[in-house]
Design goal:
Distance between the termini: 78 Å
Strand content: 35-45%
Structural class: alpha+beta
Radius of gyration: 27 Å
Number of strands: 14
Length: about 350
């Protein structure tokens, strides 16, 4: 005879079955997969320059004859505490693993710093801080306290080979994607156009992340001699996997703030009279020699130290998820970056 089953009994049956069935269900994996932070550094801009040159009644083109006028503007950061650079770098980079976790990645931290490939790559790293120039902007680059600058872009081509080999080897051995993070902090953007130089003074925080799948590799002993003879190192089978794995924030994704800017003042150097003096140049062009006048103007951009540091720390939050989006969604990969 059919009888209705009490709701309490159904509930107890469901509860008893949930245990063993749940145990058979595989644990969901983070959608981004496994990663580890191989390097992290922050570039702080200290000087920004922009130039523009024209001939009278002519657009800005290559000049072959006649008189040329040239204007250069230089903006220098003032009012900051240089010791804050290291403090900010430590905080920003220490928060990177948590940001990757929040972005949906499983972050490996154990065994990274003492991995044999990382220890060998340290030989190609540079001491922190380092000066770096990029398209008219002078930066000072910091790694976290006690670490070296391991960013391939900063150390240069000759040393980047050893760093990239260590990065790739660790990716293969750990079964995870390496992640290299390079934050940039700018305070002025200058653009020259037909004899004028436009300046946009604002604090901007950006990020370039490099990550790629290291599974396609070829591994072997580095050398039959020396300290690393018993270790295996790996290289990619195809060229440029690292370059294709570069994801940089676009301008509209960078964090922007004008609150830390206290003043922008033009100043004159009594010794060189950089602002008011006009010098005659001899300019070699495509089809001959021409002369012109050049004006160099210097400006001081003063920031409030506390607001400057607070804006950078706040602006750096959440950038990892934006930059790493290109790793899981190639169509969203930005075309423009700082590297």
């Amino acid at each position: 005879m059919f009888r209705l089953v009490p709701a309490t009994l159904l509930l107890s049956l469901t509860t008893s079955l949930a245990g063993p069935l749940g145990a058979l269900t595989p644990t969901p994996q983070p959608p981004g997969g496994k990663v580890f932070v191989f390097s992290c550094a922050v570039m702080f801009a200290t000087t920004s320059r922009g130039s523009s040159a024209t001939r009278p009644n002519q657009p800005q083109r290559t000049i072959s004859e006649g008189v040329r006028s040239e204007l250069t503007k230089e903006f220098n950061l003032a009012g900051f505490d240089s010791t804050a650079f290291q403090r900010m770098t430590d905080q920003i980079c220490a928060g990177a693993p948590a940001e990757l976790t929040a972005a949906g990645y499983e972050v490996i931290t154990e065994g990274v710093a003492d991995h044999y490939a990382y220890r060998r790559a340290l030989g190609s790293g540079q001491e922190s801080p380092q000066r770096q120039g990029n398209e008219g902007t002078s930066y000072i680059v910091y790694a976290p306290t006690g670490q070296k600058i391991m960013d391939a872009f900063v150390v240069g081509l000759s040393k980047s080979v050893g760093i990239e080999q260590g990065e790739y080897t660790m990716g293969v051995k750990l079964g995870a994607r390496p992640v290299a993070l390079l934050y940039t902090v700018d305070f002025a953007s200058l653009e020259g156009d037909r004899g004028t130089v436009k300046a946009d003074v604002a604090l901007t925080v950006g990020l370039t992340a490099v990550t790629y799948d290291p599974s396609q590799s070829r591994c072997g002993k580095l050398s039959p001699f020396g300290e690393w003879k018993s270790y295996e190192f790996c290289l990619p089978k195809k060229a440029e996997p690292r370059l294709k794995g570069t994801y940089a924030l676009e301008d509209d994704q960078e964090r922007r703030s004008t609150d830390p800017i206290v003043s922008v003042e033009e100043y004159k150097d009594a010794g060189t009279r950089l602002v008011t003096a006009v010098s005659v140049l001899s300019i070699v062009a495509d089809r001959g020699r021409s002369s012109g006048v050049a004006t160099y103007k210097k400006f001081s951009v003063t920031v409030d130290p506390a607001k400057y540091e607070a804006a950078i720390l706040e602006g750096s939050k959440g950038l990892v998820a934006l930059a790493m989006k290109g790793a899981s969604d190639p169509e969203s990969r930005p075309k423009k970056g700082k590297r």
